[in-house]
Predict the 3D structure of the following.
Amino acid sequence: MQASTDSSLALDGEADEPAPAARTRRDFLRRGVAAGGLLAATAAVRAAPAANVMPSPAAAAPADAPLEIPAWTRAPGAATGAQLYGQPSAFEKKVVRHLRPNDKQYISSSTRSPLQELDGIITPNGLFYERHHGGVPAIDPAQHRLAVHGLVDAPLLFTMDDLRRFPSESHIYFLECSGNPGYSVYGKTAAEANGLVSCAEWTGVPLRTVLAEAGVQPKAKWVVAEGADAAAMTRSIPLEKCLDDALLVYSQNGERLRPEQGYPVRLLLPGFEGNMSIKWLRRLHVTDSPVYSREETSKYTDLMPDGTARRFTFYMEAKSIITAPSGGQRLAQHGFHEIRGIAWSGRGKIARVEVSVDDGATWHQAELQSPVLSRAITRFRFPWKWQGEPTVIQSRATDETGYVQPTLEALVAVRGVNGTYHNNAITPWRVAATGEVTNARIKAS
Amino acid sequence: MRASKHPEASRACRPAVLALAAALPLALAATAVAQTAPAHGRYDIGTPLTETRLAPWNIDVAPDGRNLPAGQGTVAAGRTLYAAQCAACHGAQGEGGQGDRLAGGAGTLASAKPVRTVGSYWPYATTLYDYIRRAMPLYAPQSLTSDQVYSATAYLLHLNGLLPEDATLDAQALRQIRMPNRDGFVDDPRPDVAVAGGPPAKP
């Protein structure tokens, strides 16, 4: 076996070869017996919980027992069309958004995407994070209207049919709440720690196309966007952003927006804090100055230790998080584990992700899975051979501007802990000798 | 197409286009309209919107007070309104509860436990009017009259020591109020945290 200090380096040929779980277990037991007491004891510790979570016949059967032909092979399955809108397997019921149990109320609240359960870069629509300020309205698209007015040549009212007639575009962008997470709350799982981020393919019409239809006047500098929800959520957006990559979105991942994502139409501002991408969009007021709405003064401003507060903090800076293995999970065996995670930056493409498996002492470049898209989630992976040593694993992202994701300590040294928003710090996961993975910022009880 | 929704208006401004459209198949006609007769933009999509029609939705109020409605309210009326519609969530004296704390907190922003309220944190009083009108009370937003919103705004300013007990508030008075934390905000200085001294990653 390799020394633990080498555990992050390239794997030897044997472990590199993908092996079925059963074979790996057998190999391990054989080696454990040969190596004697210590390894055998470790194997016993790991074998018991594994049997609990995986009660398959194969696990308990002798090594050479013939494979069973299961019931689902011996009879036809559910009739075609039993679900005209498909649902996940009944065995995936735990893969749901995380709802905090003790919010003061659930009109203005949030749910978190189960990052630790997801693969790839696209968040399924039913698992996309939520942040609502006045509940989720049930809007009839036939009655919905979008008003464009203010410093324009021709104030216009659009139906949904109108908006869908404009030339359309589709782009993959992440969306992240600027309160993902606070500076002094540490989640137990990846969802709890950083689940207010998701990524989707958005389809709609560029905002600049719709603004040009109304004719933006030279004095215009901002666009005040407003929702049709009970919060009438309102944010001021620099005109420059509106004429750049802002989208009026009516579809997400190929289907119409879900109600909780702004059905029938929302704003999408790539790379900006999620709150600005107004859902259930009903009005665009073209102005010469910000409105200074409650959501850009009382909230979504970043209080600093000297008592000043930062305003119009739009960009979501580069961030990454390891999603596997991550908090609440357990490494069931020694040997090969692919460390997997996601990275994103509001300022462009991810240039590099580094992974440390020795509590930050050394860092190694992770492989980025293509496509690596601007202002989208990027997948990274890093091969790791865990030999049972207690350690801390973590990732840090660098974006194409050269910006490097900081530690929480580095952020707090500049911003204190009362800023509430824009914490893009590294999330460190502690791996115990038992294989249990926990948030390294949460003190062991 | 706007032409089908407002034939009168279209006829008035685009007779030549309609004559052309009548002579062509439908698809070609649409193309011709888009290319030859842009009313405002190149696609000729959308319906003209009058200020009268927009008025019920046109509710954002900037610090200069433009768009504040006529009407007025008093601290006294606000006290009654607050007790009936606000206190259950925000506390009898604005001390907070299920809803945000609204009063107090002066001088705490630079402390370890800052208390962010209307009086201690909000930079503009107009935002109070804007927000109450659009989003409060939580379970019945946009149900208050203009006078009621002025009264609720007046009472919250009074709770924070910014209006006297006998004050009346209207558009002109509201836009003249200077909030204590008016100059407490700075523009975004990020990137503000540089990661230095870390070993370069192995390629």
